[in-house]
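Hi! If you just cloned this repository, the fastest way to understand the data is to look at a raw example. We've pasted two of them here, unedited. The first protein comes first, obviously.
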Amino acid sequence: MTSGVALYVALAAIGGLAIGLLIGLWRAMALTRELALKDAELRSRAAAELERERMLALAGERLGTAFNQLADRQLQSHSDTFLKLARETLSVQTERAKGDLTAREQAIDGLVAPIREALARAERQMQELDKSRSETQGSISKQLESLAASQHALSAETRNLVNALRRPEVRGQWGEITLRRLVELAGMVEHCDFVTQSHQPTEDGAIRPDMVIHLPDARDLVVDVKTPLDAYLEATEAATEADRRVALERHATIVAGRIRELASKAYWSQFERSPEFVILFIPGDQFLSAAMAERPLLLDDALRQNIILATPTSLVALLKAVAYGWQQTALAQNAAEIRTSALQLYERLTTFASHLGNVGKSLGDSVRAFNASVGSLERMVLPSARRFTDLGVQPRQRLVPPKSVEELTRDVAAVDTPAPTSPTDGPH
């Protein structure tokens, strides 16, 4: 039973394999036929492609020839058209360029015209400037000639001044004028705070200082002017430095001699109100500086001899101090006069207040008497007068009694502040 089943299974398997082989063989034959058909179809397509390519090549050759001919004709036509258009365009552009050129020329002329006018104006101005420069140069030349003439005249006047200052009397007058001018500038009025050319008799004869300045404290300052210029002028005109040094040394010696000469006059012993010194005025700071440069101890020597050296700078300062002292003295005198006037005014106000009090007292008595009269009128007279109206008397004007005075006079109050004392009164 089992072997039979196995045989049956084996036969079934062999039958199935045979059937499968038959089906595969049939499919292979079908594929072979289909392949032969596809091969034939491919051969026919290949032949058609070759024929098509040959036809395309032939058509290409014909088309190329025709295109070349057409291109030549079109190129010729386009060339003619282009040349024609180019000629027309060139003509139009030429005309337009001519118009633009004309417009640009006009525009350039419009731009250049102001420049041309400005250049013309500049040229005219340059010509005017040249003319003005010529005139100015001529004027400057004349002014330079005038300046040279003035300089020459100034040099001549300077030489004349130098020659004049070499004369002792001229130097003295110049020093006195300078002194007077300084005193006026300092505010010291002539014959009020100072006197010039004052004569003082002595046992040796009359001495004459150039100026006596009165001080506020009843003191006097004696001023004497010395103008040593000979050696100084020689030093300024010296040709060599050695000559200049010699002249300056002689100038310092002359100044020292003037100091000794003034000290010998002893003005402080001749003027009772003068301090024990005298002012030596030299009308130029440069003169004293040149002397002190040669003799540095010149100032000390002068002070030992009771001589104070002064130049315009230092003398103005001294005079300003004296003028200030006089101002303070005047202020003190004015204050004293104001004090005296205040005392007199106070005393007069006291007397006036007394009189005014008497007037007020009299007015008060009068007011009291008036009020008493009004009271008597109202009590004694008016009742009798009213009886006439009661009896039928018709007066044209009604009787109005006067009113009494109610405001009284005020008493003058006594001054509580103490009276100012006299300037001569001392402390209590």
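Ok, and the second one:
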Amino acid sequence: MRTGSRGSRVSLDSLVYLYREGMSPESMVDSYATLTLEQVHGALAFYLANREEIDKYLEEGERLSEIQHQESRRTNAELIAKLLRADF
């Protein structure tokens, strides 16, 4: 889900992760200047009202990301080894 105005696109995911880390709504606005405090509070209210469903969605995304990461490391093992051996 995306939230924002004037062409800005900040994911709900981004705000939820910041919220989980303990960041205040005011600090979120400082981090995403295109968002208003009202929009951040609205996004957080939506998250809190749908917390179980959104947490499941985020967990699934993290799981899929880890699978892709492992697959990429396996597929690119030779390249990764060359890069690790390279002297920069």
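That's it. A detail worth noticing about the second one: DSSP finds five helices and two strands in the chain.
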